[in-house]
UniProtKB/TrEMBL annotation:
This is Bifunctional NAD(P)H-hydrate repair enzyme. K(+) binds at N60, D123, S159. AMP binds at K398, G399, A400, N401, S402, G427. GO terms for molecular function: ADP-dependent NAD(P)H-hydrate dehydratase activity; ATP binding; metal ion binding; NAD(P)HX epimerase activity. InterPro entries: Carbohydrate_kinase_pred_CS (IPR017953), CARKD (IPR000631), Nnr (IPR030677), Ribokinase-like (IPR029056), YjeF_N_dom (IPR004443), YjeF_N_dom_sf (IPR036652). Its cofactor is K(+); Mg(2+). Residues 222-486 form the YjeF C-terminal domain.
Amino acid sequence: MLKILSGNQVKKLDSAHLELKVISSFELMERAAVGFSNWWKSKLFSKNLPVFVFCGAGNNGGDGFAIARLLHKMDYTVSVFKCFEDRTSLSEDAGKNYALLSEGIEIKSWQEFDPTRKGILIDAFLGVGFKGALRSDAEGIIEKINSFTGKIIAVDIPSGLPSDDVLKGNCVRASITVTFAFPKLSLLFPEHARNVGEIVLVDIGISDGEYDSFSSSFFYLRDRDISGFHREFHRFSHKGDFGKVLLIGGSKGKMGAVVLSSKSALRTGSGLVSCKVDSEERLILQTAVPEAMCRLEEKIDYREFDAIGVGPGLGTEGKTALLEDLFERYSKPLVLDADAINLLALNQHLIPMIPKNSILTPHLGEFDRLLGTSVNHLERLEKAFLFCKKWGLNLVIKGANSVICLADGRQIFNSSGTKYMATGGSGDVLTGILTSFLGQSYSPEQALICGVFHHGLAGELAGKIKRRGTIASDIIEAIPDTFIQLDIS
Ligand SMILES: NC(=O)C1=CN([C@@H]2O[C@H](COP(=O)(O)OP(=O)(O)OC[C@H]3O[C@@H](n4cnc5c(N)ncnc54)[C@H](O)[C@@H]3O)[C@@H](O)[C@H]2O)[C@@H](O)CC1
Ligand SMILES: Nc1ncnc2c1ncn2[C@@H]1O[C@H](COP(=O)(O)OP(=O)(O)O)[C@@H](O)[C@H]1O
Ligand SMILES: [K+]
């Protein structure tokens, strides 16, 4: 799994790579620019639109010059806008790439840019080398870039965004950020979404093993990581191997939640799915999901089940005793979502009773209720880290790039998912998926890594067809396709 390093570690990673592969820093810059232009080619941007490349004096600007050269070669009309006083201030590699700009490329000062022009703007002003508060000239440059009404594409990071911290000043508002080697931590914070836009990761040839000597507790989960975490089933596997799971949830007016969770558990491969629901409401579940069974008795022997998920649509009124009783009589890891989390927020004395290694899946609102409001995502990550360590629990901070926070302190940002998943019930689908994997004897870590990724991928597949018309049921229907897509039998 790809490690997310700090901005300060990037230079060291680069130097180690240059030494290992015996290449120059100039060649590495060229790889970044080639990676960018290959992505550009795949997007088929119209050649009728001129390209404006804003270049700073550092290596981010160097990437910009090289990109300008490559796009010009591809027959785009390219102008470079200098965001520096004179050539002597350029970094060595930026200087080399500046010298390679061909005659057909117009070179102007950033002040000369007319932001009302039609075209595409490439922001290669500041990269991960940006430190401290913006200097006053830089403020002006960023304002100029942001006054442009067309598409802005940031190189590595939107200029002005610190790579590992929360934005404090002004920053370019990009609609796409093409980042190199690994996504910089701050690109993944929800409060930066308007500045970062869509993230595109460009490989510059640094292999995962080269990150080994760098310490980081942050990771980035991609499709290639998944298969190693799945369990294999063989020809003689029986119903029991696929697990017997229980979902506790649903209440008057909110039965849909447990309908969605149970369906998604079945679509994820559970052998047997039972639901503990109010007896008056059972017909809704049994009609909607005939494959699921209802358990109506007051005192279920929870030990019958390989995994239990609790919370979707449960309601909080009068349910504290149910949760307490569950913690007393079940010792395997649970999945706790929605109202189970709200109950914990209201009854914090129950937290020490949660079976070790359980999984909590709060969205930002539930997270705040449980652990208090946070001023920014960094604080939220720190709170999650302390909570998971203290209680030996795992937690998913849900949203775009959901963060899997493991009990051992690792925090894994998910790469799959789409904005079309921001629809009622998609969290209930995740509860079903996670409970299903736990029931199939996946460890909580395996269940989390596979579950969160497949959920996001199912959302992407559904969103490709249904766009903003995507509903939670579409995500469930797409779960089987995720196994095909990832070649999991
Ligand atoms: N492995 C990688 O990640 C690679 C990174 N490359 C590029 O190199 C960049 C990093 O290059 P550098 O270390 O030269 O740094 P940058 O180009 O990001 O920044 C240095 C420049 O920013 C200015 N600056 C810094 N703080 C400022 C402030 N507070 N106000 C105004 N200006 C400020 C400096 O004067 C200098 O001109 C990356 O972002 C990426 O674009 C690629 O060229 C090659 C591979
Ligand atoms: N913009 C987004 N990008 C990616 N995933 C998203 C986005 N918005 C929501 N999701 C995912 O959808 C799910 C929503 O969960 P939740 O808020 O609990 O929904 P509900 O309570 O309606 O079931 C989470 O897994 C979250 O990661
Ligand atoms: K930039």
